[in-house]
């Protein structure tokens, strides 16, 4: 089979494909194939492909992290400082500038909060536990599970009994 | 202890018994709490290691690499007899290690490709860079676009718009720079 397989972009950055995505020197993206996930790592000018077959995936692991709290601190502390400066200054231009910076930082903090809590995610197969560096949020993990779980279960469904198999002798006779 | 997974925080091996579906897991070593979604493959026993059956009669076909082992498969590429230790099953076919490596390096089949240089993206970036003042990138982008006009793109890319776009941008940039240089020379010579 030499025809290129069809891959559907999935994950948190799927919508950004083809826009400014190519400007990133290093990026991780993943795609859904017929029988496997394709994890694509781009480093400057070369793409590396990792195939994870649905039949081999044993578990999805995620570790909640505290990075979201640090993001909040990093945004709210300067936002409060600029807010205080804006309130304290008597200069009109200074008020507008400090106020604008404070509002911008507060908006960044709220946007970050809306994205949910942070985490690190891994996919486990019988011989490896692959880090998924592009999954940062627990909400993304849940989204990923919602489309990945049916695919994996469909490929790992236990084989149905052979139609040639004799009927079980322990079956209860009808009354 | 038979390690099932590694703690994502301290990489300590954890057994299957520790992992319960739907329950958060606390690492006994670092106390990090993490979650695991298990799939049916987690409880499948790994296939037993195969060393190849010994040759019982001299009339039996022997493995090419192990003359004392019974041949179990034929390499789909070179046709050599292989024991179950030497036969590598990939995409429902069996190969010897030499043919597998050769196929991995030279096969045009997309299923064998593990990395690829994305020339179309590179050429487009260079062409855009030429319009941002790095004019030496224009001819380079054009050469790259011409040399690799038939090179395969990214495995995940289905549209080939980048290479023509890079070539058009590069040609326009070269023309613009040429016109600017000619105008400068004419302007300079008319002044002197």
Explain what this protein looks like in three dimensions.
The complex is a heterodimer of chains A (175) and B (192). Chain A is of the alpha+beta class and 175 residues long. Chain A is built from three helices and seven strands. In chain A, the strands form two sheets. In chain A, strands 1-2-3-4 form a four-stranded antiparallel beta sheet, with no helix packed on it. A three-stranded antiparallel beta sheet of chain A has the order 5-6-7, covered by helices on one side. The C terminus of chain A is likely disordered. Chain B has 192 residues and is an alpha+beta fold. Chain B has a two-stranded antiparallel sheet with strand order 1-2. Chain B is flat, with a radius of gyration of 30 Å. Chain B starts with a strand and ends with a helix. The chains are: A alpha+beta (175), B alpha+beta (192). Chains A and B meet through strand 3, strand 4, strand 5, strand 6 and helix 3 of A and strand 4, strand 9 and helix 2 of B. Strand 4 of chain A pairs antiparallel with strand 9 of chain B, so a sheet runs across the interface.
- Amount of helix of chain A: 25-40%
Q: Quick one: overall form of chain B?
A: flat
Which blocks of ≥5 consecutive residues of chain A have pLDDT under 50? 160-175
Strand order of the largest sheet of chain B: 1-2
Work out the number of β strands of chain A: 7
**Count of helix runs of chain A:** 3
Spans of chain B of at least 5 consecutive residues whose pLDDT stays below 50 are none
Order of helices and strands of chain A: EEEEEHHEEH
The counted number of beta strands of chain B is 9
Structural class of chain B: alpha+beta
On the 0 to 100 scale, the average pLDDT of chain A is 82
Computed Rg of chain B: 30 Å
- The largest beta-sheet of chain A arranges its strands as 1-2-3-4
Biggest interface and which pair forms it?
Answer: A-B, 41 and 36 residues
Q: Give the helix/strand class of chain A.
A: alpha+beta
- Major beta sheet summary of chain B: 2 strands, antiparallel
Mean pLDDT of chain B: 86
Distance between the termini of chain B: 88 Å
């Amino acid at each position: 089979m030499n025809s290129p397989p069809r891959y559907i972009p999935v994950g948190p950055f799927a919508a950004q494909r083809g826009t400014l995505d190519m400007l990133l020197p290093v990026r991780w993206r993943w795609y859904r194939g017929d029988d496997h996930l394709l994890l694509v790592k781009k480093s400057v000018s070369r793409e590396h492909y990792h195939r994870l077959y649905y039949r081999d995936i044993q578990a999805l692991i995620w570790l909640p992290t505290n990075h979201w709290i640090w993001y909040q601190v990093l945004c709210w502390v300067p936002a409060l400082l600029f807010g205080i400066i804006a309130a304290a200054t008597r200069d009109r231009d200074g008020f507008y500038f400090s106020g604008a910076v404070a509002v911008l930082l507060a908006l960044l903090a709220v946007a970050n909060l809306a994205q949910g809590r942070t985490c690190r995610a891994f996919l486990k197969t019988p011989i490896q536990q692959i880090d998924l560096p592009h999954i940062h949020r627990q909400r993304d993990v849940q989204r990923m599970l919602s489309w990945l779980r049916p695919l994996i279960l469909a490929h790992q469904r236990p084989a149905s009994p052979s139609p040639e198999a004799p009927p079980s002798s322990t079956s209860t006779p009808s009354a | 202890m038979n390690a099932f997974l590694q703690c994502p925080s301290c990489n300590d091996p954890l057994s299957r018994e520790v992992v319960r579906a739907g329950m958060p897991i606390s690492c006994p070593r670092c106390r990090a709490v993490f979650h695991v979604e298990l799939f049916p493959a987690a409880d499948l026993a790994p296939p037993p290691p195969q060393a190849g059956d010994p040759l019982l009669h001299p009339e039996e076909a022997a493995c090419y690499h192990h003359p004392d082992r019974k041949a179990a498969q034929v390499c789909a590429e070179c046709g050599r007899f292989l024991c179950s230790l030497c036969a590598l099953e990939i995409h429902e076919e069996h190969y010897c290690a030499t043919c597998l490596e050769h196929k991995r390096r030279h096969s045009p089949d997309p299923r064998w490709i593990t990395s690829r240089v994305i020339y179309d993206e590179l050429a487009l970036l260079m062409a855009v860079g030429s319009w941002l003042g790095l004019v030496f990138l224009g001819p380079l982008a054009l050469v790259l676009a011409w040399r690799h006009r038939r090179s395969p793109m990214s495995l995940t890319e289905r549209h080939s718009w980048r290479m023509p776009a890079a070539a058009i941008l590069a040609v326009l940039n070269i023309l613009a720079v040429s016109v600017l240089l000619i105008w400068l020379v004419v302007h300079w010579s008319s002044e002197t």
